[in-house]
Amino acid sequence: MAIEPDHLLAEIALPVPPRRVLTYTIPPALQSQVEVGKRALVPLGPRLVTGYIVGLLSSGQVNPPGLKPIDAILDPEPLLDHHMLELTRLVADYYLTSWGLVIRAALPPGIDRRTARTVELIESPDLFPHALSGERLAQEAGTLGPIQQQMLASLQVQRRMLLSSLKQRWPNEEVDRLIRMLVRQNLAKVEYRECLPLIRPAYRSLLSLAVDHASAEAELTALRRRAPRQASLLDRLLQSDSKLASVEATVLAGASGVRSLIAKGFIHRVTEEVERSPWEETAAATGSWPEPNSAQQIAIDGLLEGLPSHTFFPALLHGATGSGKTEVYLRVIGEVVGQGRQALVLVPEIALTPVTADRFRSRFGDRVALLHSGLSPGERLDQWHRIKRGMADIVVGTRSAVFAPLSRLSLIVVDEEHDDSYKQQDEPRYHARDVALARGQMLRIAVLLGSATPAFESVHRAKEGAYRLFLLPERVEARALPSMTLIDMREEHAKCKVRGAPLIFSRRLADAIKETLAKGEQVLLFLNRRGYARVLLCRECGFALHCPHCSLPLIYHAVDARMRCHYCDHRERPPARCPKCGGFAFGFLGYGTQQVEAAARLLAPDATMTRMDRDTTRRRRAHQQILKTMEQGQTQVLIGTQMVGKGHDFPGITLVGVLSADASMVLPDFRAGERTYALLTQVAGRAGRGDRPGQVLVQTYNPDHYSILAARNHDYEALHRIEQPLRKKRGLPPFGFLVLLLVTSSNEGHAQEKAERLTSLLLKRAVLPLAIEGPAPAPLYRLKGRYRWQILAKGPDPSTLHHWIKETIALLPPSEQTGIEVDVDPVNLC
């Protein structure tokens, strides 16, 4: 709806600094186009940026001097309705982040018009000799470091580069330092260049009849004698009575023939939007549904009772692995869709989305849409538009799908609700499970959380009566849970006769792998570490090769024979000699999935094996291809990280080998025990899901740890009994709320000083029971060239805690606020 004449101002939420709502004037020519929920191109300093119209004001309400006008309106219709605007504002307020950033996260990526900063050399290349130490440059800029020499060499070759491209390859501080020097010495200039959206709707050219059938048939008779190719095209259009692709028409009549028919007015060209589908084939709904068992039926009936109430209905479905939680989802969603309503299903991993979506498509056909970052940008945009137009009844997606524009939403399902992947690790740092609950509360609908290892917070709320609790304690068809055996690797090492090489397979696990393969069954080997080896160590002086930008050792990857940092993606060749002592006695410590694969091939050379980790799933549809070979029995041994350990249903797997159960326990995080239990339970749940029983062999150096024992005994309550008093004493979730403040700087001393000043200011303004732990160096002390200190703020009430943090940071000058990251309800303290 166009705005009234007295509405002359628009409130625009910006996703870029200053990341707040700014007011702009509306030029008379644009007033008929402006609506809340549309995007607008607005000036911000010397550039144009895309913002989101979140409010309209009359000139009488506010009219400060110096307001800038909107440059353009980017949408014919609003992208955001009232509900989505309210939801994104609620998320921004709770997570202490920018409203514009949350809105951008709710929309398909790549659709915004933007400006990009470019750096261009304005002096002759002769000023920069190949050695990059020419007389003038040396006089004006002093000696350049090796990183600056690399950057300058790239600029010298390309003459103009995007600033973002430089910062992708080198540390931001080094880039900024060099650019400032070049600009100051009038050797380079920085400009803004407007860029079109990266992703736009796709169109195809079609031809159709422009006259009635009688006129076309009359012309066809004449054309058969003098222009048979034109006649064949006209006949094709008459027979099909539909449009024909321009390419196909050109094949039939030739380019000149097509032009001739258009010129004579018998056909005309039209364009049609094309949907880029993520599906390889269409789906047809099947009629055979498995009968639910008694526990499933109780859960289904209880959920269906809550659906029509039009009140917020949060529920927790706590079911063992293989207990049929998905069938409960399908049954309840079937009722929702039957009533003309819509459902949203969230899954934590991209690898799970095609699997889950296929299950829903087999039940509900093509009324299922898919949203996740593994789609091509065009597919993602088209799926989003399909959802917004009401063409999908069910949406399956990962974290960002919680913002799917469903107008008739009646049920949200959060599968594997405990999973940390639901928490966004960069801004805006929202948790999709909690946003789903907030959305359900706003719409007064049902939200179902499901897991075999639910988060402590969810179990606590269920026990307090905030959530309705449903239990599925047994597997479907009375199948037994897999037996879990712990293998003490301390004893295995004592028996091992080969020293120096990593002990990947204990004797018992190696024998079990051979026996399982001999029976024609499948094996899953789990290790949550990718790469080949963890550390390259000099055995003469003890030197370990570290990332130059992060306080982490480089990981060796055998595929390309490179040392890599898994955080900043720095890569280099392994040195031939030790950089510290010059020695040659290099050796690898630790192992990753690549080395496991190599060892498994030596152990079972005739078996077909596939590795599934981030390195093997970078290609498009790689997840589906790997899982398909496993499902069809073409893969006998699947080796992988956490992406193979949850949600998958492979009846042929009867042996799961956990190669190292200790990695998650050594992290300095109060959730380490809970994570270890969940990880072991989930990966163990992949075994014995068919007719044959499953076994799980867990290699560990801590066989007496309470979380490992609880997982072996399938005893969630035992874990809860031990963890609960420890958390309650420290005021940790679920008995309190947390905000993690991360203070970063490229200067080590500045990071510490800023963290100490912020802590002092927080303590001055704190009132009981608000509390602080720190400041302390972050466990990952240096990352991408920045030093990191962290402060953990705690309190029993989230509103009071968040207000304290927000108001305290606001007291700092803008220069001090830069480099402070706020993580509300953090799931990872490392």
User: How much strand?
Assistant: 15-25%
What portion of residues is helical?
25-40%
SS summary, helix count: 25
> What characteristic shape results from the CA principal axes?
globular
Average pLDDT reading: 86
Query: How many strands, which pairing sense, and closed or not: the largest β-sheet?
Result: 7 strands, parallel
Radius of gyration from CA coordinates:
31 Å
Q: Tell me the structural class.
A: alpha/beta
Largest beta sheet: what is the strand line-up? 14-15-13-16-17-12-18
How many strands? 33
Oligomer kind: single chain
Task: Describe the fold and architecture.
The protein is an alpha/beta fold and 830 residues long. It contains 25 helices and 33 strands. The longest helix is centred in the N-terminal third of the chain and has 18 residues, at 246-263. Mean pLDDT is 86; it is low at 125-134 and 137-141.
